[in-house]
Design goal:
The complex is a heterodimer of chains A (about 260) and B (about 260).
Chain A: H1 3-14, H2 16-42, H3 47-55, H4 60-94, H5 107-139, H6 147-167, H7 170-176, H8 180-199, H9 210-214, H10 220-224, H11 228-232, H12 234-251
Chain B: E1 12-21, E2 24-34, E3 39-43, H1 50-57, E4 65-70, E5 73-74, H2 80-83, E6 86-89, H3 101-111, H4 116-129, H5 145-157, E7 163-167, H6 175-192, E8 195-200, H7 203-209, E9 212-217, E10 220-225, H8 232-246
Parallel strand pairs in B: 3-8, 3-9, 6-7, 7-8
Antiparallel strand pairs in B: 1-2, 1-4, 4-5, 9-10
Classes of the chains: A mainly alpha (about 260), B alpha/beta (about 260).
């Protein structure tokens, strides 16, 4: 295996941040959505039941997977953002960054390897989250997965993956500001900005809001306005972030 | 001084190296060479510019003026064939707390061009040589400061570099560790022809191993000390006090805004 990828994969595999993040999303999202679905199905006029019912975009397993998708988009942005911040910022904080200079493997290649392992981390986390949630839905008695349910699960995975890709530009903040906390601050800013822009009705063209709106977070009418162009805006945003980060690492100086 | 030739000249060379940090001139017009088989020591007070100079020689910092060469090639364009022959330990050791010492050394070896099998074999040798066996398979975060430094040295040496640049390598080491390090540097330099550039605060330590001692003060090379001479400490302070008195050390404007 490529030396840079092998090294970065080992560091990520051993990292408490990456392990905790992976488990949080894979276990936390299904647990939370199962609880919300149970509350909605129980009915009643409690605030939780009313709010949970409002999140349901359909009935049975398909409706449940609608909630799964909405929660997954937020969870993937936050967890991938935190793990990205750590992955690119930790060496500046613990001082090991000097070891990545004056090496046979270029720094640009090391940065690229970090993105490769982050991509694998987020894809496996997103896929496992949707599968565990699907299994939890079946165990809740929502019925066996139909074709529509599998289609909905696929949408959940796609939206979660897009949100993970949108977290990758935080690597540039962690690198340029030489630490993970500035990137975490930027992540919080993105979450707040997404809320405000969505509330103002412009979320459809804001890449960080579009996937969740597509899954029904803003209601069926808002979901209907989201097309492939709005969703795929995530790709250039992510690509620019990756390019800026690898360029920064190639030119980096150890001041 | 002319740039080094790949075969005959010094393997480490810097000419007219200057680097500013805002209004502070950290390194000022420094010329320096290290030949194959030579141990060249840099001494100076804190903030003298030793670490900055080493960073420039390793391509970690770009000089505002001047140029540096490794094996006769400009540092700023040096490729893998150059870096595979360079080992370094600057400031914090290459020590990821979540990895074991063995994994850290293997990672360092692989990042310096060794394949997995060779890296594992050499890592085991280095772990043993630096008496880290007891902790070899435990997480590195449990290591003491001294053992982290040993680990950093193992990572710097694992790929059998022909150039070693070490910044305060005895930091945190116990007397046994200092003796082991001294033995390793002498053996590698005088028997394997490795060029060693080492900085240290310990003048007596430097005197035992260095072939050449360069004194830096406020970013400037202010002279050389004879490693075989007597009363090294006294001569060092004389040199520093004279330089300080003669000044002036007023900083000029940096070359760029």
């Amino acid at each position: 295996m490529d030396a840079a990828i092998a090294t970065e994969a080992l560091k990520l595999r051993r990292s408490p941040v990456a392990r905790t993040g992976w488990l949080t999303v894979v276990v936390g999202v299904p647990a939370l959505t199962a609880a919300l679905t149970a509350a909605a199905r129980a009915g009643g006029d409690s605030q939780l039941a009313v709010k949970a019912a409002a999140m349901l975009t359909g009935t049975g397993l398909v409706g449940y997977l609608g909630i799964v998708g909405q929660v997954t988009t937020v969870a993937m942005l936050v967890t991938t953002g935190i793990v990205t911040a750590w992955c690119f910022g930790r060496e500046f904080v613990d001082g090991t960054v000097a070891g990545l200079f004056a090496a046979t493997v270029s720094r640009g290649r090391i940065a690229a390897a970090k993105f490769v392992v982050l991509l694998i981390w987020s894809l496996t986390a997103c896929a496992a989250t949707v599968l565990v949630a699907l299994l939890a839905g079946v165990l809740l008695g929502l019925g066996p997965p139909s074709g529509d349910a599998w289609r909905r699960a696929g949408m959940d995975f796609a939206a979660g993956t897009l949100m993970a890709a949108l977290a990758l530009p935080l690597a540039w903040v962690a690198s340029a500001r030489q630490g993970y906390l500035p990137a975490v601050a930027a992540l919080l800013l993105i979450v707040v900005a997404t809320q405000i822009i969505t509330a103002l009705g412009a979320g459809g063209w804001f890449p960080y809001a579009a996937p969740a709106l597509w899954l029904g977070m803003g209601g069926p009418e808002a979901a209907a306005t989201i097309g492939p162009t709005q969703l795929l805006l995530a790709i250039p945003v992510s690509a620019v972030g990756i390019w800026a980060t690898t360029t920064w690492w190639r030119r980096a100086q150890l001041t | 001084m002319t740039p080094a030739s790949p075969t005959t000249g010094p393997v480490v060379a810097g000419q007219g190296l200057t680097r500013w940090f805002d209004t502070d001139r950290a390194v000022d017009s420094v010329d320096l060479t290290v030949a194959s088989g030579e141990i060249h020591a840099l001494v100076g007070l804190n903030g003298a510019g030793k670490t900055t100079l080493m960073k420039i020689l390793l391509g970690m910092l770009r000089p505002d003026s001047g140029a540096a060469w490794l094996f006769g090639e400009p540092v700023d364009t040096a490729g893998p064939h150059v870096w595979s022959r360079v080992g370094h330990l600057l400031e914090t050791p290459f020590c990821y707390g979540e990895l074991t010492p063995t994994e850290n050394v293997v990672a360092a070896a692989r990042l310096h061009g060794m394949n997995t099998r060779a890296a594992r074999r050499r890592a085991a040798e280095m772990i043993s040589q630096l008496t880290l066996d007891r902790w070899a398979d435990r997480r590195s975060r449990v290591l003491s400061l001294g053992n982290r430094q040993r680990l950093g040295l193992a990572c710097a040496l694992v790929h059998r570099p022909q150039v070693l640049i070490l910044d305060e390598p005895t930091n945190g080491l116990d007397p046994m560790g200092v003796l082991e390090l001294r033995g390793m540097l002498l053996s590698r330099s005088h028997h394997a022809g490795v060029a060693v550039l080492v900085s240290s605060h310990h003048l007596d330590e430097v005197a035992r191993i260095a072939d050449r001692i360069t004194v830096m003060h406020r970013g400037v090379v202010i002279g050389n000390l004879d490693p075989g001479g007597v009363d090294l400490e006294h001569r060092f302070f004389d040199m520093v006090y004279t330089a300080e008195k003669e000044g002036p050390w007023t900083q000029q404007s940096p070359p760029r805004p």
